[in-house]
Design goal:
heterodimer; A: 130 residues; alpha+beta; Alpha-Beta Plaits; 4-stranded antiparallel beta sheet; B: mainly alpha; Serine Threonine Protein Phosphatase 5, Tetratricopeptide repeat; 19 helices; elongated; RNA_pol_sigma_r2 (chain B); transcription regulation (chain B); sigma factor (chain B); RNA_pol_sigma70_r2 (chain B); RNA_pol_sigma70_r4_t2 (chain B)
Chain lengths: 130, 416
C-alpha cells in the first residue's frame, strides 16, 4: 500500500532539514534532539533497506513558487507563496508498505515539534467486485 | 522469434535450474545471480548456435561454471566451497534424460516455494521472491506489476535474500511438524499474487505480465506436487472460479462492474467447469478449510444465471461456516450481504453492528459501502447517502470511488 508523507512546516529562514530552522525544535534539550535525529536516521535507512521507500524530495522556499490561476480562459502566472498559511509543504516521501499500521508507525517517526506531518494513502487503479 | 522461445524456455526452466544449483550450492542469492547470467548467455548464444536439445542441462552447466568461477575469485571460505563443488561430478545429469520421469521437477518447484515463503520473510518479500525465483519473472516485470521503481524492488529482493541467509533457510522440504503452516504460507502467497492481479482493472497501467495468471500457474504447480492437499485444490478452484469473471468485471471504459451487475454470459465457462470439477473431488471428503469454502461460495455464484437467482440461502450458510473457520471483518461483511439477500436487509445490517465499534474497521470503506447498500435496500435513502459518501471518502481504489460516487449521485436523483 502506497502512502505519501507530507511535511508541513515553516522553517525560518527556509531550509532543510527543517528542524534546524525551527525554534521549537532548536529549543529542545540536546539529548532529546539527538535522540529524535537518530530515530529519524534509523527509520530512513530501514525504509531504504526494506525497499519500502520509493522516493521523496525536499522542496524549495514557497516564495520561489510560481502560481498559475485560470483567468479569462487562460492561465495567469504570479509569484508565490501559495497562501499566507502558517505552514507550507516543505517536503514529501512516497512509501510502499505492507499495511496501514506500518505506515502510521513510519509517519509518527517523521513528526517533530513545530511542524505537522500528514499521512495520506494514494489511490490505486484496482478494486474488488464483491 | 528466438527471443520469444528463450523467454518461454526460461519461464519453464527457471525453478528447475535454480533447484539443481541450490541442491549443490546453498545460497539463493548466488544461485539466482548465476542462473540469471546463464539466461543472459543464452540470449546471446542461442540466436546464433540455435536452442540446445536440452536447454535445462545447458543452463545448469553454464550457471554452475559461473558459480565456480565466482567462488574461486571470492574469499578463502568460498574457495573451499568451490573445491567441494568442483570435486563433485559435473552432472549435466542433474537435468533428467529423455527417458527419465521428472519426479524431482514438482519437488523442485515446491521446495523453492517453501524457501521463498520462509517464515522469516514478510509477506511482500515472500511474494516478490516467489515471482522472481519460481515464476522466473524479471525484476523489471515484478516492479512494473507492483507499480514500484525497479530500484525499490531490487532492494526488497536483496533484503529478502539476506534475511534468508541469516535465518539459515535451506532448499529442502520442511519438517513434518512445520509442513501444514508452510503449505498455508505458500498458498497465501499464491492467493495474494492472484488478488493483486485480479483486483487491478485494466487501462490505467501497462503491465506485460498477468499476475492472476502467474498465480494460477504457480498454484497449479503446487497442486501437482501436493495432489491430495484439499486446501491447495480449494485454493486453485477459488482462483479459477474468480478468474472466470474477469471478462465481465470491467466495462468498455475500464470501470469496475460489481458482481450484481456483471454480464454473466461473458464469464468463462471453461474455468468455471474446471473449478467446479476440482471442488466436486474434495468437498465430499469433509475437512473443509477457508479456501475450499470460499471456492464453494464462488461456485454458487458461478452457477446462478442472475444475481437475483443466486442461492443466497446456501451462500449465507457457507459464510456462516467461513466465519467460524477463518473469522475476519471481510468475512462478516460478505456474510451480512448474503444474509440480507436471503433474509432481508434488517437482519444483514444487524450483523454489521459489531464492526462499527471495531477500531480496525472504523475507517474501512467497505463497512460503509456494504451498510449503504443494505440501507438503500431498506429504503433508508438519507442514511444510505451518508454511508456512500463516507465509503467514497475512505476507499483508496479509483474505480471503487467512481462507483460509490455514481451510486451516491443516482440516490440523490431519486431522492429529490
Amino acid at each position: 500500500m502506497k502512502y505519501v508523507i507530507l511535511i508541513h512546516s515553516n522553517p525560518q529562514p527556509w531550509g532543510h532539514p527543517t528542524g534546524d530552522y525551527l525554534a521549537a525544535y532548536q529549543e529542545l534539550p540536546d539529548d532529546v534532539r539527538k535522540r529524535l535525529d537518530a530515530e529519524f536516521e534509523q527509520v530512513m535507512s530501514e525504509l531504504q533497506a526494506n525497499g519500502e521507500l520509493i522516493g521523496g524530495e525536499a522542496l524549495g522556499d514557497p516564495a520561489a513558487a510560481r502560481l498559475y490561476r485560470w483567468e479569462d480562459g487562460s492561465p495567469l502566472a504570479s509569484d508565490g507563496p501559495y497562501s499566507e498559511a502558517k505552514e507550507h509543504l516543505a517536503g514529501f516521501f512516497l512509501i510502499d508498505v505492507e499495511n496501514q499500521a506500518r505506515a502510521e508507525e513510519v509517519a509518527a517517526k517523521f513528526a517533530g515539534p513545530g511542524e505537522t506531518v500528514e499521512l495520506r494513502p494514494t489511490m490505486w487503479p484496482g478494486g474488488d467486485d464483491q | 522469434m528466438v527471443q520469444r522461445i528463450l523467454a518461454d524456455v526460461w519461464r519453464r526452466e527457471a525453478p528447475h535450474v535454480l533447484g539443481a544449483l541450490l541442491r549443490r550450492y546453498g545460497d539463493l542469492g548466488d544461485c539466482e545471480d548465476a542462473a540469471q547470467e546463464a539466461a543472459e548467455a543464452a540470449t546471446s548464444q542461442w540466436p546464433i548456435g540455435g536452442v540446445p536439445d536440452n536447454p535445462r542441462a545447458w543452463l545448469i552447466r553454464v550457471a554452475s561454471r559461473r558459480l565456480i568461477d565466482r567462488a574461486r575469485a571470492d574469499s578463502a571460505r568460498a574457495r573451499r566451497e568451490a573445491l567441494d563443488l568442483a570435486r563433485r561430478p559435473d552432472d549435466g545429469g542433474v537435468a533428467p534424460g529423455a527417458d527419465e520421469v521428472p519426479a524431482t521437477e514438482v519437488d523442485d518447484t515446491l521446495r523453492l516455494l517453501f524457501l521463498c515463503c520462509h517464515p522469516a520473510l514478510s509477506r511482500p518479500s515472500q511474494v516478490a521472491l516467489s515471482l522472481r525465483a519460481v515464476a522466473g519473472l524479471s525484476v523489471e516485470q515484478i516492479a512494473a506489476a507492483y507499480l514500484v521503481p525497479v530500484r525499490t524492488m531490487t532492494q526488497r529482493l536483496s533484503r529478502a535474500r539476506t534475511t534468508l541467509r541469516g535465518a539459515g533457510a535451506r532448499f529442502a522440504m520442511p519438517p513434518d511438524e512445520e509442513l501444514a503452516a508452510r503449505v498455508a504460507a505458500v498458498l497465501d502467497v499464491c492467493h495474494l499474487v492472484f488478488t493483486e492481479g485480479y483486483t487491478r482493472t485494466s487501462g490505467e497501467t501497462l503491465v506485460d505480465v498477468e499476475l492472476a495468471e502467474e498465480a494460477i500457474r504457480l498454484t497449479r504447480q503446487v497442486h501437482v506436487a501436493l495432489p491430495d492437499h484439499d486446501e491447495v485444490t480449494g485454493g486453485l478452484a477459488l482462483m479459477l472460479l474468480t478468474h472466470a469473471r474477469l471478462p465481465a468485471r470491467t466495462d468498455s471504459a475500464g470501470d469496475l462492474v460489481p458482481l450484481a451487475e456483471q454480464d454473466r454470459s461473458r464469464w468463462r465457462r471453461d474455468l468455471i467447469a474446471e473449478g467446479v470439477a476440482l471442488l466436486e473431488q474434495i468437498l465430499p471428503r469433509g475437512h473443509v478449510g477457508r479456501y475450499q469454502i470460499q471456492a464453494a461460495i464462488a461456485a454458487v455464484h458461478a452457477e446462478a444465471s442472475t444475481y437475483q437467482a443466486t442461492d443466497w440461502m446456501q451462500i449465507s450458510v457457507l459464510y456462516d461456516m467461513l466465519s467460524r473457520v477463518a473469522p475476519a471483518p471481510s468475512v462478516t461483511l460478505n456474510h451480512a450481504v448474503a444474509v440480507a439477500m436471503a433474509h432481508g436487509a434488517t437482519v444483514g445490517l444487524a450483523l454489521l453492528d459489531p464492526l462499527l465499534t471495531d477500531p480496525a474497521m472504523r475507517r474501512h470503506h467497505r463497512v460503509y459501502a456494504v451498510r449503504a447498500h443494505l440501507l438503500e435496500l431498506n429504503g433508508d435513502v438519507e442514511a444510505a447517502a451518508e454511508h456512500y459518501r463516507r465509503a467514497a471518502q475512505l476507499t483508496t481504489s479509483l474505480p471503487e470511488q467512481r462507483y460509490l460516487n455514481r451510486r451516491l449521485r443516482q440516490l440523490g436523483r431519486r431522492w429529490t
